[in-house]
Amino acid sequence: MHNSINGINVARQLAYIKQKYPQFETELSKSGKLLLVKGALKPTARSCNYKFRIEFQVGRRPKVYIISPVLIKNNIGKMPPHLYGDGSLCLYLPRTGQFSDGHWLGDTILPWVSLWLIYYENWLVNGYVWNGGGVHSGKIEDY
Amino acid sequence: MTTIEDPSTQLDELLDKMAEGLQLDDTRYDRMKSAYRAVHEFVLEDPFFKSLVKETYPQGSVKTETANKPYEGNEFDLDTIIQLRPDAGRFGPQEIRKQLERRLREPGSRYRNSLISKSRCVRIKYAGDFHMDVLAASQRNNSCPNTVLVLNKEMQNVDISNPRGHADWFIQQANSVVESLLEKADRKRAIEIERLPNDNFRRKKPLQRAVQLLKRYRDIYFSNDDTFKTSSVILTTIAGQYHRGEPSIFDTMDGIVGRIVSNANFYQSIPGQRIKVLNPVNQLEDFTSKWDTQPEYYNAFIDFASHLNNEWQKFKLQQGVLTESRILKGLFGEDIYNDATSAAMSQISNARASKSLYQIPASGILTSQPVSRSIIKPNTFFGDNA
């Protein structure tokens, strides 16, 4: 299987996203190794549309960035929780099987973006409390 | 978790939850109920009242199901009536009032040290945060079962009052909406998940929710200076009169405050004219008669309604959750907003935990309805940038 290690190659990931999310822009790099996905999602009917970009290569974690509106910091200038240092979203716990090359981005990462956004919006309006659970400083928090 | 694919339904769900958070809790409600029964039983045991009492009942917001928890240090006002039979009219309203005070003040009465004599009633103050207004009055005649004659000490006259009729009128106005937006969403949801709606679950009508929210906004608006604060009976009555059967809480509020502002603008061009709020069951009674002698009350009411109207129009722009949260917190209080959104987030998290949370691929909206949706697979948010 081209560009995959025991999993789904990027061309098939792209085809699946095009089928499930036809409104998104998808692009494969010239080398055929890097998949780019651009689009917009809103977690609730009254939310604004969040433009995002996903960069994915087989064998690496998908990088998901919120492009606009820019993510807002809390009252003491800190970014919302569950972001990597490069600003991409931390959507799953690595090495636990929640996501691997055998999973469809369209069935995992993309739905989790909506989930992350709904907790982010709640964090913004509810006193900067993250109610979505997750692993924080090595500790698991329930949602 | 609910299906909230429509922005209007989502906003109404939030407004409904906020109003629910304003309601009296069961403990407080039960405490007031037993206090009310005790007072009425005490009065009924008196030889004067024993043979004259026809019935006793609560009136006001408890009756119209628009009661709110008291706001910051205010007391909840429980209005009750002891209605005497028409033949008690031979004693006259003054004597009936005198007898009520005599009974409540007599030696051995547990109420004697907590009474305040008001213009139309006797107020009993309770430890904590509520007081009870007790009004004893005879029925006007046999053909008007809900009309009573009440002594008005301040005005030095007798009011013809029909509190039960007023409450019935309000409920009728509220029920002019056969199926509200949220009731429709409930029904749709029940069909989609092939489950019968819960018989015990009954939503309040948009008008009742709008009045609860109006009153809380009034409490906050006048919290710094309540000299010219608009009374609950005026707000409740004008809301009922200006309601046009809009099926959503948002549109109900929008319609009420929009009509207030528009009518106020209209009357402004006619010297000596103003909005009048007449008692719908007794058109001779103008609840706003004070607005003539003290126009500051009228001006304060119009300013209050205009501010609400301006804020309300902003929702039509759909500027996102953050902007809307600021408006709602400003109007109705941060605690009520936070409690309502926490409850909504708990529903999301419960649906997620029970693997019944889905994403609609076309929009990204999360929902609990599985039809052609994408299930949210279990995940754990990772990383710590906070």
How would you describe this structure to a colleague?
The complex is a heterodimer of chains A (143) and B (386). With 143 residues, chain A is an alpha+beta fold. In chain A, 20% of the residues lie in helices and 22% in strands. In chain A, the strands form two sheets. Chain A has a four-stranded antiparallel β-sheet with strand order 1-2-3-4. In chain A, a hairpin with a 5-residue loop joins strand 1 (25-28) and strand 2 (34-41). Chain A is globular and about 45 Å long. Chain B folds into two domains: 7-22 and 171-336, no CATH class; 26-161, Beta Polymerase, domain 2 (2-Layer Sandwich). Chain B has 14 helices and twelve strands. Chain B has helices at 7-22, 26-44, 47-50, 61-64, 92-105, 163-174, 181-192, 206-221, 232-242, 249-268, 290-293, 295-313, 321-332, 334-353, and strands at 53-59, 76-84, 115-117, 122-125, 130-141, 144-152, 157-161, 278-279, 282-286, 358-359, 366-367, 374-375. In chain B, the strands form three sheets. In chain B, strands 1, 2, 3, 4, 5, 6 and 7 form a seven-stranded mixed β-sheet that branches. In chain B, strands 11-10-12 form a three-stranded antiparallel β-sheet, with no helix packed on it. In chain B, helix 10 (249-268) packs across helix 12. The radius of gyration of chain B is 24 Å and the shape is globular. The chains are: A alpha+beta (143), B alpha+beta (386). At the A-B interface, helix 2 and strand 5 of A face helix 1, helix 13, helix 14, strand 10 and strand 12 of B.
